[in-house]
């Protein structure tokens, strides 16, 4: 992997990097063989240390997680044993209302205004200072570059000032792994559906950092479909469109409106395409309808959209079980997984197939710092982290941000031409990077 420059012994490492206070690392890790990454502006995602951290040491880790990939500025402090010491989220509700969605430049400015107090509040609520931290974890992709940069700058600033190791986190892996914090029985391999504002992802999680992508989004993710529908219906977007539709749908009849959903056309590209919904009622007029009619639209939209997910999940789980018959769990996470109707329907699918559904609590399904800190802990204990940024890191350093960064490799049968055409400027997947560096270690 680019930037990995060689293998150093522990002594050589300390000799070469005397200026680092790596005492925290040395307490936590008995390094024997280290892969070192000398371009400090990059996140290596490499197998940095070939030895795992002992479980007693893992329990003592304290990691700050920072998340700014989209429109939530979030930070949290989590202990290695899974104890959440604090959690702070600042949403951009006013901007969502004003623009009806995320406007990158506005979102960046809002992150910049919030990031200092969000991280400081996370430390204060945990009754800690940055000196007490073992490491900093920060989302480096996928997401909006302008927004990712704000979190990465802050994470590196803290890591540099307090000489802390830093872990670059994949946002969708964080949505997945937070389920292992909330359900400590959840072992690999498992199946996961990740549903957010930017992605629908169906993955087989073989192991930490090793994912097979069974299905992904070509156009709108389901969260975006919820947001657009809420906007069309003129609903209050302050908590984003999803919760607004979920609430209104409770008052409506889910069978009252006929939607034409064209997802069956795409089964051969399974399960890549999120449904295109054609309503018989022109949605441009929807916001002027009375509440009862809008509730019927919300309920019918939700039924059809989730039915689409159900179909896709059933097929993908069938594939996954062929590859890994030992799978017992079906994780559903990401913002849309906080929806009670979605959870109930997918719970039924899991039961029918004989799997157990694992859904993190709603506050850990939507974007948060806990999932980032926890993913940092999982990788840290496997030895995957970067050293503290150098004290003299220039202000204009080009950071390693990965706006388009797949989680895993695509399952051959699920590949579609439409998706292959959208590969431009895509970063190699997390799984291929980790597997590449594991080979280098052999
Ligand atoms: O994971 P997330 O917080 O941010 C992204 O990574 O995108 O997901 C945000 C998405 C938004 O589209 C929002 O409308 C949707 O999750 N969402 C919901 C609910 N809560 C949030 N969708 C349906 N029902 C909900 N209760
Ligand atoms: Zn998310």
TrEMBL record:
Primary location recorded for the protein, binned into one broad class: mitochondrion
Cofactor: a divalent metal cation
Keywords for this protein: Acyltransferase, Metal-binding, Mitochondrion, Transferase, Transit peptide, tRNA processing
GO cellular component: mitochondrion
Domain of life: Eukaryota
Domain Gcp-like: 83-374
Single annotated GO MF: tRNA N(6)-L-threonylcarbamoyladenine synthase activity
Subcellular location(s) of the protein: Mitochondrion
Co-factor binding details: Binds 1 divalent metal cation per subunit.
InterPro entries on file: ATPase_NBD, Gcp-like_dom, KAE1/TsaD, TsaD
Pfam families xrefs: TsaD
Hydrolase as UniProt keyword: no
A GO biological process held by the record: tRNA threonylcarbamoyladenosine modification
Catalytic activity: L-threonylcarbamoyladenylate + adenosine(37) in tRNA = N(6)-L-threonylcarbamoyladenosine(37) in tRNA + AMP + H(+)
Stated family: Belongs to the KAE1 / TsaD family.
Quaternary structure and interacting proteins, as annotated: Homodimer.
Free-text function comment from the UniProt entry: Required for the formation of a threonylcarbamoyl group on adenosine at position 37 (t(6)A37) in mitochondrial tRNAs that read codons beginning with adenine. Probably involved in the transfer of the threonylcarbamoyl moiety of threonylcarbamoyl-AMP (TC-AMP) to the N6 group of A37. Involved in mitochondrial genome maintenance.
Name of the molecule in the record: Glycoprotease 1
Organism: Chenopodium quinoa (Quinoa)
